[in-house]
Write a structure and sequence with these properties.
Layout: H1 3-52, H2 57-80, H3 85-95, H4 101-109, H5 116-131, H6 134-137, H7 146-158
Helix pairs in contact: 1-2, 1-3, 1-5, 1-7, 3-4, 4-5
Length: 182
C-alpha cells in the first residue's frame, strides 16, 4: 500500500471514529447531567421546604450547596472523562456490523510497520468507514433520567402552595367560679 492510499484510509477511519466520538461524548454528558439533576432537585426541594417553613435555615443553606455540587460535579467528570478511539471503533464495529474492521485497522495503524495483511485490512476498513453514518450508529435520544426529573419539576410547582402547619388550638381554660364572683 502506498503512502497516500494509507493516509487516505487512515483519515476516513479517524474521521468516522471522531464524529461518533463527539456524539458519544455529548450524549454521555447529557445523560450524566440529567441523572445528577434528580438527586440535586430532591436536595433543592428539601431546602425550599425548610425555607418555606422557616425551619433549620442553616440546614437549608447546606442543602442548597449540596444540590449545586450534586448537579455540577458528575457532569464535570463526564466532560473530562477520556473515551479511547479504540473503544469507539469497537462500538461502531458492533453497531454497523463491521466485524471488527475499524478496531483492527486502528490497532494496525498504531504500528510503524504493517504486513500486507494489515495494509489490506486498513484499506478495507477505510472503504467501510466511508459508508458509516454516525447518526445511524449513535442516534440522538432523550437523556436517561428525564422522566424522574420531570416528577421532581412537578414537585417544584407544588412547593409555593405549601403553608406552614398551624399548631392546634389549645382548649380554653374554664374560668373558676369563686364565691366572690357570685
Amino acid at each position: 500500500m502506498n503512502q497516500p492510499e494509507r493516509h487516505e484510509s487512515q483519515q476516513k477511519i479517524e474521521s468516522t471514529v471522531q464524529s461518533v466520538r463527539i456524539r458519544w461524548k455529548i450524549l454521555s454528558v447529557l445523560d450524566v447531567f440529567v441523572v445528577s439533576l434528580v438527586p440535586a432537585s430532591v436536595l433543592l426541594l428539601a431546602a425550599l421546604v425548610l425555607g418555606r417553613f422557616e425551619m433549620a435555615p442553616i440546614a437549608a443553606k447546606w442543602l442548597w450547596v449540596g444540590s449545586i455540587v450534586t448537579a455540577v460535579c458528575p457532569a464535570s467528570v463526564a466532560i473530562f472523562w477520556p473515551i479511547s478511539p479504540l473503544q469507539i471503533a469497537l462500538f461502531v464495529d458492533r453497531q454497523a456490523n463491521l466485524h471488527d474492521r475499524l478496531s483492527s485497522a486502528m490497532q494496525f495503524l498504531a504500528k510503524e510497520q504493517q504486513s500486507e495483511f494489515a495494509q489490506a485490512a486498513i484499506r478495507d476498513a477505510g472503504r467501510h468507514a466511508e459508508q458509516v453514518v454516525p447518526e445511524e450508529v449513535l442516534p440522538w435520544r432523550t437523556p436517561k433520567g428525564v422522566r424522574e426529573l420531570s416528577v421532581a419539576l412537578v414537585a417544584f410547582g407544588i412547593v409555593p402552595f405549601l403553608s406552614p402547619p398551624t399548631p392546634p388550638a389549645l382548649p380554653k381554660a374554664k374560668k373558676k367560679v369563686t364565691r366572690s364572683d357570685k
